[in-house]
Amino acid sequence: MKSHRNFWIVTLLIWLFSTWIDRTWWHQFDGLPAWDQAEYLNSALEHGRALGILSGGEWEGWKALLDHSPKIPPLASFINGSVIAIAGEEPQQAAWSLSLWNGILLASVAGWGLYLSGEVLGILGVLLIAFAPALIAIRLNYLLEMPLTAVVTFSLWRLGCWWNSDQDSKKQWQQLFIASVACTSAILIKQSSLLVLLPCFTWVCAMSLRKNQAMILQLCAGISIVLLGILPWLRHNLITTLSGTNRAVIQSAVKEGDPTLFSIENWVWYPRLLPEQIGLVVFLIGCSGLVLWLLMKYRRQSRYKGINQVIDNQKGWQWLIFSLLAGFILTSISPNKDARYITPLLPPLLLLLARGWLQWGLWASNSFPLLSQRKLLLALLTGLTTIIPTTWNAHKSLLGTAHEGPLLEIINTIKNNDDNKEKRKTVIVVPSTPDLNQHNFSYYGRIKGGNLVGRQLGNSLDDIQPVLNQSQWVILAEGDQGSVRNSSRSLDKAIRNSQVFEELKQFPRQQGGSYSIWHRRHNKPTKNNFSTRFPVLARQLGEGIDGIEEVFREIAIQHMIDAHFGYQEKVQEIAIKRISNNPNDINSRWALALLAVLRNRASEAEIQFAVLEKLLPTNPWPSIYRSTMALAEWNPWKAASIADSAKQLHVNNAVLEGLGDLSGILGGGLWRLPAATNSIPRAITQFNTK
Asked: I need a labelling partner for 371 at 20 to 30 A (CA). Which of 3, 69, 362, 603 fits?
């Protein structure tokens, strides 16, 4: 087998060159990360600490590690956190992880191009990827799109290699293992990878029924590998993952006014971005070259001179085009729209357009027989220089989005004005601007082993009194408040007029206005009795839906004021002590159950709810919660048994009936489907009417 040594050397050189350009950009970029970027930096920092490889953290066990990824899978944060441990914690240093992911992307495109049509296509594809404006943007933006795009591209390539493989059984199994691990990795980076991979999974499953038994066996093995890879995380964080996906996809789409599914605007939303995302020249020449390719195939002009001895992998191209179209359809169906959400489909698209570029080369070779292979390749590369201005503009425009502000000075001032510099502190950040928000405040407050965390309050008037009662440090803004609600202005006014806080210092902003630090006066002690109130609050869970809303409303505010959850250990200690003296202490049982729920320990919560079932035989809610916890532990049979038993005591309880039928169906009891069509809507109605 040909080694393609020079081919891989050229690919490596392109990666080194693009990395040099990126690092030069990062060297000049001294701006602050905005909301999303800082949030993902925080995630990498948290996972690095949880792995015990960054200062300020230690290994606390597998469950504690998974606690840090309640809504978004952890793989990218594991790897990014490891890079931070080596490269450093400043954003420019942490961005080395983006270069790593870019290397994986370019290597995947090179290998895929080689597989499809040979070395020239591979190099053309790598060049188009390296200089595409949209892909430059995600290389210079600390988001999940770069790792997502890299691993989805690798997954599609390897999955296609396995599916179209005609090698011996041993090599097919090797191809299967690589493809399965790649797909698992993509899902463990971000759930949206399924928008591209799920159609391919579905196609492979459907078509495998027409193939031999060995292929079906391999498919089952591959699915098992994927499930074994994602289930530990998904099982631990199922409820928060579902709620987070609903917020990020459906609620965000409604809030942002994205087009509806059946509108024309929805289906042209992403295609209209392509000339800007990949460059107009690349798009036009690539598309026209594809038309030429089809015409030449139609006319059966398949033999040319020079480099035209390209043997296309027909099955490989069919796979690429199918995955591209199917992924586009599913991504367009997704209600939430953003330019970066389509980036995982740009590499296969650019490979397809690279084939159009190559076809123009084949045409030129046929039309001008004296044009040698080397000259033709040089001509193609010269043509690609037309995308350099677009690439330069992409880098330049991103430099123009650099956010500058006094964030570091604010953090240092707070640290230097506190007697206990090692104390874990929560700072309320009322404004929300690109250069100062709760996320980038937390990141800079926690690097190098720090424990200064920012949280935003002001979304409700209910936030005002808890801040006045408990908070020590608050940051306000004079002038532009950023993306905040009107209630934030009420909180701002209350803090300034309360005489509880005093202004420590103001910091001017380049765009006008200033930020100010406010500290609690020494003669105004905090009124923090939350740990004492917690058991009474937890008991309100027994009141049902109204109680649930009140409990989590207060806890949400408390978790903003105390981001380190300092109250929880004290509550647990008191509750355990009281139960040791009186096992039937109802308030303490509710407190321990709620603590377990908040800590995402469903099995521990289920134990406490089981005790409360016996202590409160006339109250259906301990049984409802216990069944829900069993379901969260992926034990639908136990959940159904609990709900069905409780129905005997609490007749006509719609929630218990719905839980019993839902759990029974999830446990394989399909005979409960007719009853579920009535009971589940009734349970939902009961919740919605409260």
From this structure: 3
Question: What is the b/e burial string over 11-23, where b = at least 16 CB atoms within 10 angstroms of the residue's CB?
Answer: beebbeebbebbe
**How do residues 553-578 score in pLDDT, each as one tens digit?**
999 999 999 999 989 999 999 999 99
Residue 55: half-sphere exposure toward Cβ, Cα within 13 Å? 9
Nearest-CA neighbor of 547 among 617, 639, 624, 631?
624
> What would the CATH number be for the domain defined by 407-520?
3.40.190
315-327 confidence digits (pLDDT tens): 999 999 999 999 9
Is the per-residue pLDDT at 520 higher than 60? yes
* 601-688 matches 407-520 in CATH topology: no
Give yes or no for a contact between 219 and 208, defined as CB atoms under 8 angstroms apart: yes
* Pairing label, strands 514-520, 501-508: antiparallel
Q: Which residues contact 284 (CB under 8 A, 6 or more apart)?
A: none
H/E stretch holding 473: strand 473-478
List the structure tokens of 588.
Answer: 């303490």
Residues 459, 464, 467, CA angle at the centre, nearest 5°? 105
Q: Which of 151, 172, 176, 156 is nearest to 115 (CA)?
A: 156
Query: Percent of the chain beyond pLDDT 90?
Result: 56
Q: What is the pLDDT of residue 368?
A: 66
Residue type, 249: V
* Per-chain mean pLDDT for the chain: 87
Could you say which DSSP state residue 463 is in?
Answer: G
The first and second tokens of residue 493, run together, are 């006014």
The pLDDT, as a whole number, for residue 210 is: 76
Rounded Cα distance between 496 and 494, Å, is 6
Give mean pLDDT, residues 38-50: 94
| pLDDT recorded at residue 138 | 92
Q: Could you give the maximum distance between any two Cα atoms of the chain, in Å?
A: 97
Q: Is 9 exposed, middle or buried (0-12, 13-18, 19+ CB in 10 A)?
A: exposed
pLDDT of 390 higher than 70: no
Label residue 395 exposed, middle or buried (CB < 10 Å: 0-12, 13-18, 19+).
buried
**For the residues 224-233, what does the mean pLDDT come to?**
93
In Å, what is the CA distance from 198 to each residue of 10, 105, 237, 331, 344? Answer: 33, 20, 21, 11, 13
User: Would the pLDDT of 542 be above 60?
Assistant: yes
pLDDT at 302 over 70: no
> What is the reported pLDDT for 424?
85
Query: What is the rounded average pLDDT of the residues 78-88?
Result: 95
The CA-based angle 611-615-616, given to 5 degrees, is 115
Paired with 452 in beta bridges are 425
* Matching CATH number, 601-688, of 3.40.1390, 1.10.10, 1.25.40, 1.20.140: 1.25.40
Sheet holding 501-508, edge to edge: 452-455, 425-429, 473-478, 514-520, 501-508
Asked whether the beta carbons of 117 and 2 are under 8 A apart, the reply is no
Which string of b and e fits 659-674 if b means at least 16 CB within 10 Å?
Answer: bbbbbbbbbebeebee
Cβ neighbours around 246 below 10 Å, total: 11
Identity of the residue numbered 223: I
- The backbone region for 600, taken as left when phi is positive above 0, alpha when psi lies in -120 to 50, beta otherwise, is left
Q: Taking the domains of the chain in order of start, what are their residue ranges?
A: 7-279+310-344+380-397, 407-520, 601-688
Structure tokens at 145: 């799109």
Q: Is 89 exposed, middle or buried (0-12, 13-18, 19+ CB in 10 A)?
A: buried
Amino acid 305: pLDDT: 44
The residues pairing with 475 across neighbouring beta strands, listed in sequence order, are 429, 517
Give the separation between CA 137 and CA 191, rounded to whole angstroms.
21
